[in-house]
Write a structure and sequence with these properties.
mainly alpha, Globin-like, 2 domains, two-stranded parallel ribbon, two-stranded parallel sheet, 53% helix, elongated
Length: 199
């Protein structure tokens, strides 16, 4: 694509003329700051994987010495301007999603719990078909397991035992996104309600 000074000026006018102006509530603002911190940590990990170390000035040329960057410090040690830049990037993403009509929900409660419930039911079905029965104390030698109960009961009785199912659901979605660039778009939360959620 042809690009010159005039097109650069038009682009600058376009992006500064009408910014997305959606105020964020405190909860989303907190999420933005959390994501800014996570983004910085991810950026640092990427730089370190390429051999970068902390240095007072940036050096991207290995022939001039070690690869260095002055921002290779913990997030809390960044100067305010850099922190605000990271937060602004996160806010921009959230604002665009809001502008596109996206609704933000508690992902664990609304999405992961129903998926975890299904994972739990599949596990229970395999166990029961293999001759396992419920008991108040797990006894593997006699095929007795305390988790052979409905997901809702397990979530209130042994909440720590559903962590594996929830994390499995989370990791499947993460792998779909990172490995295949695919995200399951849920068009109606009504058809995907959290009937498996303990909330």
């Amino acid at each position: 694509m042809f690009f010159n000074e005039q097109t650069a000026i038009r682009y600058a006018a376009k992006v500064t003329h009408k910014p997305v102006s959606i105020d964020l509530d405190p909860e989303l603002s907190a999420i933005a700051e959390h994501q800014a911190r996570a983004s910085h940590e991810g950026w640092m990990a990427g730089k370190k994987a390429k051999g970068y170390v902390y240095g007072p000035v940036t050096n991207d040329d290995p022939e001039k010495g070690p690869l260095t960057n002055p921002l290779l410090v913990p997030y809390d040690e960044l100067d305010d301007a850099t922190k605000q830049s990271n937060i602004a990037n996160a806010v921009a993403v959230i604002k665009i999603l809001r502008d596109k009509g996206c609704t933000f929900v508690n992902f664990t409660q609304m999405i992961l719990y129903p998926l975890a419930k299904q994972i739990h039911d599949e596990w229970a079905r395999e166990k029961i078909n293999a001759g396992w029965k419920w008991g108040p104390v797990t006894d593997k030698a006699n095929k007795i397991h305390r988790d052979l109960v409905p997901f809702e009961v397990l979530a209130t009785t042994y909440p720590e035992d559903i962590a594996y199912d929830v994390d499995t659901a989370r990791q499947v979605i993460i792998k779909m996104i990172t490995d295949n660039d695919v995200f399951p778009l849920i068009t109606s939360l009504a058809s995907f309600n959290a009937e498996g959620s303990p909330a």
